[in-house]
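Methods — Computational structure assignment.
A single polypeptide chain was analysed. Its primary sequence is given first, followed by the predicted tertiary structure written as structure tokens.
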Amino acid sequence: MSVREAAKQETREALLDAGLALFAKEGLDAPSLDAICAHAGLTRGAFYVHFQAREDFIVAVMQKATHGFLDAVLLGTEGGFDLEHAIAAFAAMSKPARFVSFGQIPPHQFLAACARSRELRKYYVGFLEEARSRVIKAIRAGQAARRMRTDVDPAATATLLVAIVLGVETMGELHFPIDLAGGAAALLTLLRA
């Protein structure tokens, strides 16, 4: 990578990090582009080098937040995908009302933005499909290694696990008491061979 390309990437990352920080603090609608640029120590001109519009920027910020979460939870161990690791990692990462899957942005704000933005909704549906696909692979790997029950359908189980994550996020935002460690242990008891 050339020095110019590296500087351009550094500028983009600074904008994304500023967006994550301000969106987590103020929500997706409140921070102005000027505030985001100032937080990054950049100008609006730098912003428009990387993003055509605010919507493009929000999608890029959400990509950074959600893929970081997905990679942290679903990368597994050296041997590949590991559903036990994924469930434990999610339980350890989650905290009431603010989830790292949205970059600390409250889930209701993220979903409201999806309702307004076809592009963000399209991205999020794709993200959920990727998460489901990775979980299917993890389940199949666990079944092949005889660590997981072989009498459960990987696709149906993966869909339920993704739905559980979304439900946990909603419960957390509502400050509904939930024992994630206990829930993770129960899930693993149901799925282990």
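Note: The chain is about 75% helix and 0% strand.
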